[in-house]
């Protein structure tokens, strides 16, 4: 059985959990990370030298880095409906999979630490305002893309890209900041909420 190491509140762990739900992959999850077993322990570092969750073990195969894990899972467990073999279709999915950690995650880092985590090190009003503006700009990019497709982030069909992006959308709505009116994002949020895996691991009250 697939073993998943990482606490369920982690957005990157939830990518893996939601992917497992979509593919009906049975798994066992263990709590690792802040507040649980330490990722700085020799046991964990032997699996991931970066000391970050999630990590999976699939038999004798170990893998870390959340987007690499979900790509592996769809390749290993018959997920071609989420990640097709056609080079162009896959490239459209990959560009949004890669945009999420490289651009979208980066823009929310200060607002999340300030408004959700309540970190005393992230309470500068100017830095918070700049972070909120950057986050809003990226959400406007997403809104325009969803308006273009009329459905999901890479096209008309739900794909692997919607898992990290959908979790990011949940984080957007769960963070207490001024949200510009983004009708396509709002409709996307409701569309994703028809999927049982999203209600378990996305729109479940966890930012």
CATH class term of the largest domain: Mainly Alpha
- The strand count comes to 4
State the share of residues found in helices, binned by percent. 40-55%
What's the helix-strand series? EHEHEEHHHHHH
CATH architecture of the largest domain: Up-down Bundle
How many strands, which pairing sense, and closed or not: the largest β-sheet? 4 strands, mixed
Given helix and strand content, the structural type is alpha+beta
| Physical arrangement of strands within the biggest beta sheet | 2-1-3-4
> Average pLDDT value?
97
CATH topology of the largest domain: Glutathione S-transferase Yfyf (Class Pi), Chain A, domain 2
Shape: globular
Low-confidence stretches: none
Q: Can you count the helices?
A: 8
Tell me the quaternary state: single chain
Question: What separation lies between the terminal Cα atoms?
Answer: 28 Å
Rg is: 17 Å
Return the domain count: 2
Which percent band covers the strand fraction?
5-15%
Family: Belongs to the GST superfamily.
InterPro entries: Glutathione-S-Trfase_C-like, Glutathione-S-Trfase_C_sf, Glutathione_S-Trfase, Glutathione_S-Trfase_N, Thioredoxin-like_sf
Protein name: Glutathione S-transferase
GO molecular function: transferase activity
Mind explaining what this structure looks like?
Helix 4 runs antiparallel to helix 5 and helix 5 packs across helix 7. A hairpin with a 2-residue loop joins strand 3 and strand 4. The two termini are 28 Å apart. With 207 residues, the protein is α+β, with helices and mostly antiparallel strands. It has 2 domains: 75 residues, Glutaredoxin; 110 residues, Glutathione S-transferase Yfyf (Class Pi), Chain A, domain 2 (Up-down Bundle). The longest helix is centred in the middle third of the chain and has 30 residues. It has a 4-stranded mixed sheet with strand order 2-1-3-4, covered by helices on one side. It contains 8 helices and 4 strands. 54% of the residues lie in helices and 8% in strands.
């Amino acid at each position: 059985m697939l073993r998943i190491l990482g606490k369920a509140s982690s957005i990157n762990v939830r990518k893996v959990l939601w992917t497992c739900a979509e593919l009906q992959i049975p798994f066992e999850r263990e709590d690792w990370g802040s507040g649980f077993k330490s990722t700085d322990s020799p046991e964990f570092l032997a699996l991931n030298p970066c000391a970050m969750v999630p990590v999976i073990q699939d038999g004798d195969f170990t893998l870390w880095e959340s987007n690499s894990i979900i790509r592996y899972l769809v390749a290993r467990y018959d997920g071609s409906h989420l990640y097709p073999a056609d080079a162009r279709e896959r490239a459209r999915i990959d560009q949004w999979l890669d945009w999420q950690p490289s651009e979208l995650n980066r823009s929310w880092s200060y607002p999340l630490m300030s408004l959700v985590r309540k970190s005393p090190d992230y309470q500068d009003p100017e830095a918070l305002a700049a972070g909120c503006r950057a986050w809003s700009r990226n959400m406007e990019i997403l809104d325009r893309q969803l308006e273009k497709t009329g459905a999901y982030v890479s096209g008309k069909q739900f794909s692997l890209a919607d898992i990290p992006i959908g979790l990011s959308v949940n984080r957007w709505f769960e963070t207490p900041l001024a949200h510009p009116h983004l009708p396509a994002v709002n409709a996307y949020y409701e569309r994703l909420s028809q999927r049982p895996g999203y209600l378990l691991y996305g729109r479940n009250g966890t930012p």
